[in-house]
Amino acid sequence: MATVIQGNAVNEGEMPYRFQVKVCGTTVTPDSVHRKPLENGDLIMVYKDKSYEVPRVTYNPKKFLLMGDSGLRIKPTNLGLGKLNSKNLPDGPDCTAPEIYGVHQCYTNFTESDLTQSQTGDYQGLDEWYFKQMADSAAKEDIDLIVYVGDYLYRQGPCPLNNTDGADCSAVNLPSFTSDPMTKGTVLNFVPGMYGDNWHGWWADFFYPALNLLKTAPIIPTRGNHEICKRGGYGYFLFLSPMPLRDLCKDYMPPYAVKFEHEQFVVVDDSAIDPLGGGVDHYLPSQCPGPPSSGTLVPMQEARDMNDEETVKQLQIFTETFKYVDAYALHYDTNFYVGHRPILGVGCNASQLASLDWTLQQSLGPNTLDGFNALITGHMQ
């Protein structure tokens, strides 16, 4: 007999702007009746008299899909997004639109002329983005578990016609900007097109292209640096975070374990690390040094101000995090570490070898990773 979950609103008038959706779910605990394998149709969500089958869940997965960093890269550097203050309250005449779930909507962030002027930034053409094709192909592979290593939302703004990369991505700007009055409660696209930390951006960049795949298997949704609070964090906490929605967005989440019969995945939120000089995203790989004469790769030492308050704070957070990670590994013979940033990676930065993540390496204990069979991370393409 199917178990029914009723859809419930989580917004309660406190969600940030642009999430005019409702989310529902259930929790599977160690003593839950759902700890046994679930087949399609065993668990059903019902919303507005329409039934939705929860994907098959097995306690002994055999086939895994590793993926991440999948969005369409649109990163304008001279256009602003959102004109709300820190409490999501209207900020002057730019946020006097009607409310949804008690939150005012901004709809005068851009004008049509903004989208036709030459704009700087990083842009990817829609004809160069293959996420949906890849996800649809994976959906046919009878996957037991999806492990996603973060970075779902890449569409941070509109795609101007005259962008500096010449990328053909202007279709995300539709429907075009409008300042027509909006009726309270009407579901509309409050920004021009499918981008930004809102339901429309998340739908276009992740949920729509991954829809067929997400119907086939459960997902471990790791948080990436694109999901920090000032980028895509509100959508991550609403749709993907395993934490109860007590906070709209938090800078750090504690590590947690996803346990199966023979293995567990220990998930670490490393999204908010502030790397020196922007980190690996700003490395210059064109002049890699030759092979070392000693046969040992030794990356250059980063010069960090150990009196810097944020540096000390992050080292404290992740030193404590790895203590929990180490403790989790004691309970299983097979352990997989899952994060976004590579811990032990080394990359080329001009003529130097550089660690991909100094903060994580400095925070490791002497034997922290000894109990892990593999480290699964992303961030690099």
Protein model, in words:
It is a single chain. The protein has helices at 131-138, 199-207, 211-214, 233-239, 309-328, 358-363, and strands at 3-6, 43-47, 50-53, 64-67, 74-76, 99-100, 103-104, 121-123, 145-148, 219-221, 256-259, 264-267, 335-338, 346-349, 352-355, 374-376. The strands form 6 sheets. The protein has a 4-stranded mixed β-sheet with strand order 11-12-13-16, with no helix packed on it. The chain is α/β, with parallel strands linked by helices and 381 residues long. The termini are far apart. Helices cover 14% and strands 15% of the residues. Residues 1-16, 78-110 and 176-192 have low confidence and may be disordered. It is globular and about 65 Å long.
